[in-house]
């Protein structure tokens, strides 16, 4: 798995109500494209339901973290995703010291591989950024999950475009005599 942060955000954001295709994992073809692109895994058509179920759990966990709920419930939900996955540790030469990596054991089913990598990637993001840096865009109808990498840590929108839309809408609302 390359780019843990990019991978976990891509997985969580396979659901996006404002995209022409709101769920990229809606069918077997979409699941195959995603797993091939990110994990070099080729799922069978009947894996699609299990793959979406994993995505739904990971998305729910990311949204819970974005809302500041990082307690036992989220941990347990993520834990059940990987309890039956066998992992294999490997060591390779790093830049200045050997680097230890974890990966699902060979032969692991595609949905379990996805679950394993998603949990590893999420752990990586939490360690590197802090759980509080996971956010959901506040510019409805956008539901994009993103990582706030800003220095101040007060980013509310996934993109400049969403920020502009939010402020324009609020301005119009005020002009129309609204109170928000
Ligand atoms: Zn947005």
CATH names the topology as Jann2411-like fold
Rg estimate, integer Å:
18 Å
Give the CATH level 1 class. Answer: Mainly Alpha
Strands of the widest sheet, in order across it, are 1-2
Flag low-confidence runs. Answer: none
* Ligands present: zinc ion
CATH architecture: Orthogonal Bundle
User: How far do the termini sit from each other?
Assistant: 43 Å
In N-to-C order, the SSE pattern is HHHHEEHEEH
Q: Which secondary-structure class do the elements indicate?
A: mainly alpha
Shape: globular
Content of β-strand:
5-15%
Fourth-level CATH superfamily: Jann2411-like domain
In total, how many beta strands? 4
Number of helix segments? 6
Whole-number mean pLDDT: 93
Main sheet: strands, sense, barrel: 2 strands, antiparallel
Helix proportion range: 40-55%
Describe this structure in words.
- The chain is mainly alpha-helical.
- It has a single domain, classed as Jann2411-like fold.
- The chain has 6 helices and 4 strands.
- It has a two-stranded antiparallel ribbon with strand order 1-2. A two-stranded antiparallel ribbon has the order 3-4.
- Helix 1 crosses helix 5.
- The radius of gyration is 18 Å and the shape is globular.
Summarize the structure.
Helices cover 48% and strands 11% of the residues. The protein is built from six helices and four strands; from the N terminus they run ααααββαββα. Residues 137, 139, 142, 144, 157-159, 162 line the site of zinc ion (ZN).
SSE diagram, text form:
Layout: H1 4-12, H2 28-39, H3 48-66, H4 72-82, E1 87-93, E2 98-104, H5 110-129, E3 134-136, E4 145-147, H6 160-175
Antiparallel strand pairs: 1-2, 3-4
Bound molecules: zinc ion (ZN).
């Amino acid at each position: 798995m390359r780019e843990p942060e990019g991978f976990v955000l891509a997985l969580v954001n396979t659901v996006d109500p404002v995209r022409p295709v709101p769920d990229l994992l809606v069918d077997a073809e979409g699941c195959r494209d995603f797993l091939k692109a990110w994990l070099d895994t080729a799922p069978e058509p009947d894996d699609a339901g299990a793959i979406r179920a994993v995505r739904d759990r990971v998305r729910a966990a990311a949204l819970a973290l974005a809302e500041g709920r990082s307690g036992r419930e989220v941990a347990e939900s993520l834990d059940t995703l990987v309890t039956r996955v066998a992992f294999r540790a490997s060591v390779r030469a790093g830049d200045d010291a050997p680097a230890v990596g974890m990966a699902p054991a060979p032969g692991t089913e595609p949905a379990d591989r996805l679950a394993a990598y998603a949990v590893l990637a999420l752990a990586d993001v939490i360690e590197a950024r802090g759980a509080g840096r996971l956010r959901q865009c506040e510019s409805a109808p956008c539901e994009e999950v993103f990582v706030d990498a800003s220095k101040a840590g007060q980013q509310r929108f996934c993109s400049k475009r969403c920020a502009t839309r939010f402020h324009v809408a609020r301005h119009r609302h005020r002009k129309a005599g609204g109170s928000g």
